[in-house]
User: Fold this.
Amino acid sequence: RRVLFRSKKSRRKYTNPNNMLTLKQIRDDRAFALERLAVKGVDAAAALDRIEQLDDSRKALQAELDANLAQQNANAKEIGQLFKAGKQAEAAAAKEKTAALKEVSKQLEEKLKQTEGELNEIIVTLPNFPHSSVPQGKTAADNVIVRTGGETPELGAGALPHWELASKYDIIDFELGVKLTGAGFPVYKGQGAALQRALIAFFLDNNTSAGYTEVMPPLMVNEASGFGTGQLPDKEGQMYHATVDNFYLIPTAEVPVTNIYRDVIINESDFPIKLTAYTPCFRREAGSYGKDVRGLNRLHQFDKVEIVQIAHPETSYEALEGMVKHVESIVQKLELPYRILRLCGGDMSFTSALTFDFEVFSAAQQRWLEVSSVSNFESFQANRLKLRYRDANKKTRLAHTLNGSSLALPRIVAALLENNQTPEGIRIPKALVPYTRFEMIK
Assistant:
């Protein structure tokens, strides 16, 4: 059996419930922080220097403020005693000193607030530490193939890419989408719409059969939700923003589903929590252009079914492996050639500690298309979410969060159309026929 992770020894090192980007961790092991962040291509030396400076200032300001408040308390007692003793003039002088101390306290509190704010602003810009098994690398070319599966079809001469098949069979209208909204907002028609609906139901049924509870979350979230899962401030420019209400259209169901447990303390016996959701997803994809965005390859609005787990820190990597196998089983049922990649540091998301991407082969385009990312965020998101659990000793600790696409529809549809084209029409995989209720797109 191919193992996705390294030894249990290395796994234990990264499943500590305190493994997160906290001020204490950054200060206690600066060298480790620099080394881990460098794997993601981040030179954090200047940021860590500034964090240490601000933390020192914060501690000094807090100590000065505490001393000042203590002196005010002492003065208050002295003033009471002076009044009792009839020493009005001395009491009045002591009150003046106290008033001056209060003004100093006000100034110290403001400086402390500003320092803490700047400190927090820098910390939240630092990405999660990558797992020890994450390979070095800067781009997708440095990702490592874990395993492959399925058979690549041999298409005859004249095979068409999916955007031409969509037009030929009148199942997806890209130009109508441009008219209604803009590029990247296709309109699905007839058997194309039925195929979308069938895939959504197929994915959800596979997920619920594997123990995931289905939820239907909102498609817009507030700023706190975006921050909790790490889309804000990292991906602010890629999210559609409803400015009047300060809501964001979701880029993935991961955001609202994981945030269900924001500011929640769960019991250790509740693990694992497994949720699945279908939602449309919205991404600006700023700067995307060229042949790689043709047809369904890159959209601004698309359908996706997501799986999310809240896991115990000691078992989150077993949970990740189970999620990878689950997604793999669905791709196999769709009879698509696929490969699983372990992402290198430079190609990983801001929040992820370890990510496996699924790609399916698009026979007409002769290229691999990403259809799923399955990730363990360890306690990085939980720290932002304040998502904790009570252990056997009644102590609260941070949980681990995981999520995966199960699956994103556009490129799955692209591969299904291209790989299954025949002179008679486009064949539907057997596992999907009970959902489409037709065997061929004609």
The chain has 14 helices and 19 strands. The radius of gyration is 27 Å. The chain has a mean pLDDT of 92. The CA atoms of residues 34 and 42 lie 8 Å apart.
